Amino acid sequence: MQAIVIEGFGDPAATIRLRDMPEPPPPAPGEVTVEMLVLNINPSDLLQIQGLYGTSRPPLPFIPGGEAVGRVAAVGEGVSGLAVGDIVSPMILNCWVERVNLKAALAMKLPADIDLAQAAMLKGNPATAEALLSDQVALQPGDWLMQNAANSAVGTFLVRLAKQRGINTLNVVRRDSAVAGVLEAGGTAVLADALDDPRAFRKKVQEATGGAPVKLAIDAIGGAATGVMAGALADGGTIVNYGLLSGEQCRIDAQHLIFRKISLKGFWLIHWFQDAGRARIAETYGRIARGMADGTLTTPVADVVPMAEAARAMALAGAGGRSGKVLMVTPAGVEAGVG
């Protein structure tokens, strides 16, 4: 079998290697063997391959990939609730491999009729959107939040979840061509704005919301964009940063923090897993899986690339102007009809 292996940090398209690996042994008691079908590529994967993600670099060599969907290929002794053929989300961080053994508790069973491409995106982006929407500020139907990078996967999931709950979203994108897609997903208002003029942006926000207070801002960009969004928040509002797409640290004027009581927080899904508790995690993923299965909670896919062409997939995922996610499909995924 094959795996995508990182042997040195750098440009993902130039750094990754497709290596032959030994097949996993039969699963031990309490384990299952999962055959991967579709592999998701997240910005965090690209940053990790560059050695820029988190507080420390993983030891080399390593198999990356925080998200995928697979099928149970073998079941170890003592495992209940899972059977060969079940579709699962592997709750591990080394998913870019054809087959892997893992504890049965880390294989989350999904609906049999779930779309496999959407299921490959289940673990990270929709759960992030859910936590950003529900766990930061107590929003009620009719309230407003705003977000940048609104046409990203997280942004699209957040728009759909907010609409289901009657929460208004003011969505910021960089390109005029991205406006229609966010509106189609259910965005209340969409602005194409470079987030480089605080006064102009604040005026646009006031016009778009009819002067209603915006209590929550969700920031995936960092840099100067953080401060620009903070300036358009209502006094006492909260801005939550979960990404640095600009490549720069968050910048915010101290006057917002001191005199306007704006709060700046960070969000990392790993911490949410640690803090949420099993019941909350199960409830969240159960709702997301049902939404993916019935088609009410989906995000666009721009490209599905064979695993054998992983370097091309990395280049596509790192390029700007995409209309959706870039996924890789394994040989087993191709046989299952993906791609």
UniProtKB/TrEMBL annotation:
Entry GO MF terms: enoyl-[acyl-carrier-protein] reductase (NADPH) activity
Keywords: Fatty acid biosynthesis, Fatty acid metabolism, Lipid biosynthesis, Lipid metabolism, NADP, Oxidoreductase, Transit peptide
Domain (Enoyl reductase (ER)) ranges: 10-328
GO biological process entries: fatty acid biosynthetic process
Catalytic activity field: a 2,3-saturated acyl-[ACP] + NADP(+) = a (2E)-enoyl-[ACP] + NADPH + H(+)
E.C. code: 1.3.1.104
SMART domains (UniProt xref): PKS_ER
Similarity comment: Belongs to the zinc-containing alcohol dehydrogenase family. Quinone oxidoreductase subfamily.
Protein name per its UniProtKB record: enoyl-[acyl-carrier-protein] reductase
